[in-house]
Amino acid sequence: MAENLAFKIYKTILRVILEVFSFFPERISEHEEVILRKGLVPDGFLPHPKGMIWLHGASVGEVQTLMPFIRLLNDKYGRERLVTTATTIDGLKLLQKSETSAFSSLLPFDLPEYYNFFIEKIKPSLLLISETEIWPMLLHYAAKKNIPAGLINARINTKSVRMMSMFKGLFRPVLKELSFVFPQNNNYYRRFKILGVPEEKMKIMGSFKYDAISDDACPEAFREKYAIPQERPIICFGSTHPGEEEIIAAALKEILKYHPELIAIVAVRHLRRIHEAEKTFSDYQIPYQKASERKEITEPLFLLDTIGELKSAYATSSLAFVGGSLIERGGHNIMEPALFAKPVVTGPSLFNFASERRTLSKDKALFIVHDELELAALIKDSLQNPQVYKEAGKRGAAALKKMRGASLATFEELENCGYLEL
Fold first, then answer.
1. How many CA atoms lie within 13 A of 86 on its CB side?
2. Number of domains in the chain
3. Distance of CA 355 to CAs 105, 147, 193, 207, 343, Å?
4. Does residue 422 fall inside a structural domain?
5. Per-residue model confidence (pLDDT) at position 392
């Protein structure tokens, strides 16, 4: 594929930007990052004789979502056949921690001089790019080197479609040269088609994110750890944001008058805000304890100020509220509590999880509240009619089960099409 004027302008702009940044003093960490982005590989690395699979994800979220797919590759071909890259440092750290590839690095700067060195060293026979990582020179160089390249778990928003349409001289040629694109759903399929990806190269495979939801929580261990009596009902409020704790506090203030046996677990989205949450609940005169105190729960409110226990809290609860939804934040993953067959409650703002909202709503497994009055009424109803909400939780778990399997389906499709015949 020959370079057009758009490619030449793009390369020139990137080189100018890198040159400008080279005049600024670097911290040690930044210096190490720049070295990795120049396409260097570990000393002594030798590519597998049968070829390497190069898998790329952007940041922590994308890398976490890729893990079930990476494990499938490991099981079939071994970690020594896999090279993984990330766009961000945090994504790289997660890849390195997982120890699922021959080595992990940062994606090189999007310029041929860096890709040339990197590709010559790792000798990939297949390039798999996750979700929205469309780098023009990377795809152009892969096509130039006759390396099959495709997007897996692919998605693209309308803003990116508009941007890429404006610069179609840069993006349309490389998108047309992709060997395959596996969109998550029909909306993404249509958007990639608008950008020029041929229909015969696309196949809807579903979303990896449902496979990445882990069910390794242990509610019995959680109750035992914090000495929670079995007879006390638990409601979990996960991933809360500023403005939501006030609504939760007002609802709890009302409901505890009638149900003092209730335990409410609150996990703020960002732990640095735990003191804000403490002040809010203190202002509403709701007694609380913190998980970090490691004491038996005796108060009605339990602030989960530890890392890695939210899933266990969801699994232990009889009702789960998922935050970021009573404010204009777009919500968080409502499928996490659904995995444990818990009825899910949110506010109305779920634009980041529109398809999940439709799925759970269709099966009557999602409850939407708008304020503290509706939240208090729903909690009261769930305590008075537990079986109704238990059945709703079961419907949500069944809906999630139907949505899983995209990682395996993608793996099998790549095998069937011959891309993994290495």
1. 22
2. 2
3. 33, 34, 20, 11, 17
4. no
5. 98
How confident is the model at residue 31, as a pLDDT?
65
For residues 362 and 409, state if they share a domain: no
Co-location of 15 and 28 in the same domain: yes
Q: Which two tokens stand for residue 70?
A: 């990476």
Q: Cα-flanking dihedrals φ and ψ of residue 230, to 5°?
A: -60, -30
- Note whether residue 421 is domain-resident: no
Q: Exposed e or buried b for every residue in 239-261, given b needs 16+ CB within 10 A?
A: bbbeebbbbbbbbbebbbeeeee
Q: Give long-range contacts, CB 8 A cutoff, 24+ apart: 344-353.
A: 344/320, 344/393, 344/396, 345/319, 345/320, 345/321, 345/369, 345/375, 345/378, 346/321, 346/322, 347/244, 349/324, 349/325, 350/325
How many alpha carbons lie under 13 Å from residue 285 in its C-beta half-sphere?
4
Domain at 55, CATH number: 3.40.50.11720
Domain harbouring 268, CATH code: 3.40.50.2000
Amino acid identity, residue 163? Answer: M
| 10-residue mean pLDDT series, the chain (422 residues) | 84 90 62 84 92 94 94 96 94 93 96 93 96 94 95 94 96 95 96 97 95 85 92 96 98 97 96 96 97 89 93 96 97 94 98 91 98 98 98 97 96 95 69
> What does the block give as tokens for 106?
């940062």
Q: Which domain holds residue 294?
A: 219-403
